[in-house]
Each structure stands twice: as C-alpha cells, then as structure tokens.
Design a protein that fits this description.
Elements: E1 2-9, H1 12-22, E2 33-37, E3 52-59, H2 62-76, E4 82-88, E5 92-99, H3 102-106, H4 111-125, E6 133-137, H5 141-163, E7 166-168, H6 174-185, E8 190-195, E9 202-207, H7 209-215, E10 259-261
Parallel strand pairs: 5-6
Antiparallel strand pairs: 1-3, 2-3, 4-5, 7-9, 7-10, 8-9
Helix pairs in contact: 2-4, 5-6
C-alpha cells in the first residue's frame, strides 16, 4: 500500500517534518521526498509569500499497517495504561500488550484478544494481498491457555474411558479445537470430534468404540472399568509407558463449560 502526503512549512525542513508527522514517523526517520514548492518571503513582510511544500511517498508494509490499526483500536478503547511491544519480521509480526488494563484486552476466555488478532490480520493481509502472520498476545496468556486446553482434553479423555460417556465442551475457535483434538489423540481409548456450525461449533470427547469392543472380549461386559480374564484389559500393555501421569486435582481451574450426555 502506497501512502502519499504533502507537508508544508516556512522552510523545506519544516515542510518535511510536517509530512513525517502526518505519516506517524519520527524526525530521524529517513524517507524519499520531492520538493514541490520552495518558500517565498512576503514582500515587505506583508504581501504575498508562499510556504514550502514537500511530498513524501512511502510504501506501507503489512507490519506497519497492523501496528497502526492495533494501536488505534486500543486508543479508541480508552485504555491509557497499555503499552504495545512490536517485533516485526519479513513475513510476520508479534504484538505483546502489557499494562494494568490488559484484562479488557483479553476479554472473556480470550475472545477480545482473538478478535483483535483476527481484525489486525485482516488489515495486514490487505496491504499487498499476501500471507502475513499476526500474533497478538499479552504476557504469556496464549501459552497458559494452550496448556489449560491440553490438560482439559486429556482429563476428559480419561473420564470418557472410565465412564463410557461423552462430554461436550463449549464452542471454541478452530485453533483451540485443534489443541483439544491433538491432546485427545495422545490418549488411547478416547476420540474427539467437532459438532455444530459457525460460532456454535464445539468439541465432543468420548470413548473409542473400537477400543471398547477390544477390551470386552471373552464375554465380559461393563466397558473399561471391568478387568476380565483371557483377552481382557488387564493383560494389555500400557499404550504409552512413557506418558507422564495426569494431575486431575487441578480440574476446578480448567476452562470450558462441560455437560455430560448419554
């Protein structure tokens, strides 16, 4: 995206500084410019005279457009105790937001933060219609959220194996649903799938029917809780002996509204 502004001032330097200010640049930022009009002094200090005019043309990068948009949105939210640290690269940019009011930036279960990242990505990728990755974070919120979802997925996977019932989570975005699915895949005997459309799409975790039939060989019934003889569950080796045990005592602090269904 090309941005062009014309600055004016009593001198060429003042006109150039005016153009930089319009572009949000500092006085020390280097730019290419074109002198459109030289200044002319007034006759007798009273009549005529012209200001200097300078035209500056800059190509706005996706990262620059994203930074401008994100800071404008935060300013419009009237959040004064906020700082934005920016790390821009050739094909991506990371914005880390800090301050006393970050709770407003995060929103309910990160919904506001996700919305900001989505909208900022739209702005960045509109600059030259090429893929430019945007990450908007605050502290290590996203890392904590990902860990929480991983624990939630594994906890409900073990619960499905134990009870033989499925659990439905609340709607999540595609990124968070993928975290849940990946976590469940690491627990043999449980499966996950998505149901619903649009904003109502959510993950369901339940027992794997194939594993259930395998454990029930020899005429024993009762799912995964019974330990029968012969080909039953008790003789099966652990599917992943190196897997670390899950601490289920922290379940009360997990994200997600869970409802059990038959």
């Amino acid at each position: 995206m090309i941005k062009e502004v014309i600055g004016t001032g009593e001198t060429e330097l003042e006109a150039l500084a005016d153009a930089k200010a319009q572009l949000g640049l500092g006085e020390d930022d280097e730019v290419e410019f074109e002198l459109i009009q030289r200044p002319e002094k007034k006759v007798l200090g009273l009549f005529g005279g012209k200001e200097a005019k300078v035209k500056v043309i800059v190509k706005e990068t996706p990262g620059d457009a994203a930074e401008t948009f994100l800071k404008d949105v935060i300013a419009a939210m009237n959040l004064t105790n906020i700082t934005v640290e920016v790390e821009k690269n050739e094909d991506n940019a990371v914005f880390n937001i800090e301050g006393d009011d970050v709770g407003y930036i995060i929103g309910r279960r990160g919904e506001t933060l996700d919305a900001l990242q989505y909208l900022t990505s739209l702005v960045a990728n509109h600059v030259d219609n090429s893929y430019f990755k945007i990450t908007v974070n605050t502290g290590n919120y996203r890392e904590k959220r990902e860990k929480t979802l991983e624990i939630l997925g594994r906890k409900l996977a073990f619960k499905a194996i134990k009870t033989g019932k499925k659990s439905s989570l609340e709607p999540m975005n595609p990124y968070e649903r993928r975290i849940i699915h990946t976590s469940v895949q690491n627990v043999r005997g449980a499966i996950s799938w998505s149901e619903g459309e649009g904003s109502s799409r959510h993950v369901v975790i339940g027992p794997d029917p194939k594993e259930r039939r395998r454990y029930s060989k020899g005429g024993r019934s009762g799912g995964y809780n019974r330990r029968g003889r012969g080909d039953g569950y008790s003789k099966r080796p652990a599917p992943n002996p190196d897997r670390k045990p899950i601490d289920e005592s922290n379940g009360g602090g997990l994200y997600g509204r869970i409802t059990n269904t038959d």
